[in-house]
Amino acid sequence: MAVYTTISHSDAQELFKSLGEIDKLEGIKEGVENTNYLVHLNDSKKYILTLFEKRTKETDLPYFNNLMGLFNKNGVNCPLSISIKNKNLFKIKEKPCCIYTFVKGRPISSSNKEQLNSLGKSIAHLHQSGSSLNLYRKNMMLLPSWKHITESFSKSNPKIINQEYKYIYEKINHLQDKFPLNLRQINIHADLFKDNIFFLDNQVSGFIDFFFSCTDTLVYDLATFVNAWFFKENKFVEDKYINFLKSYQHNFELTIEEKDNFNFYLKVSAIRFFLTRLYDLHFNYEGNVKHKNPIEFFEIFKFHEENNIQDLF
User: Fold this and answer.
1) CA–CA gap between residue 134 and residue 62 (Å, rounded)
2) Whole-model pTM above 0.90?
3) CA distance 52 to 94
4) Which of 23, 185, 235, 301 could be disulfide-bonded to 270 (CB atoms 3.0-4.6 Å)?
């Protein structure tokens, strides 16, 4: 989430007129993808207004909105798109936008055993639900994105082609033809970072930001979650990972093939976030955005080259 496009109170009120009077409009600065506002109405109801920027295609919005609706029906608490006059896709300042329900709770920065147990159950349930949904969207953030980003870097100022990038570029050439074809694919979240999972009273209260969701291997989704949650200052936090894994595996069983390819997808996920963070740092500088450090995921990639945590299954 971020603020690229500034909108006024009157801009928003025109859209919200059938829902109520807006009391306060707050820009949400976290994240780097789309423009988000927290909208407070006079009747104390809250909504999230999301304006979709360059990386999110308007043609993908029906998939995202339908997916969240189906997840919600399966008991996964997540935002729901609001319809006005049978429409849930609108325009503000020529940008596609949607209104979403507000999910209660807050992200956590550090997790205790009770929270890890809840995470295991909740993500297992997310994957169970994702395997039962008849929707499809290709994952554009792996090979298609790698190609786009590396081509962009090759045409730009050579000073951004640093040692870490050169190292990862060589690894891409080695890994890109090795994606397994025998793993089950489901509808996944694909961005299970700490700021996208909310808690209340040590329990997961909901998931947000489904705008990278797609159809891909669940082990890639799990790998992204592990990379995002179980590294602190470039060190793997094994005890917390094991506590989470016990809960997850008690509620959802991975296949032998998924376990055998976990290390591969941990490296693939680390490459994905290293590249997109590096790209955003050098090309995505419009708006009020807090950029994240790409080197964090370079170090995570190096860890997975030297260690194989799939042995902990």
Assistant:
1) 14
2) yes
3) 10
4) 301
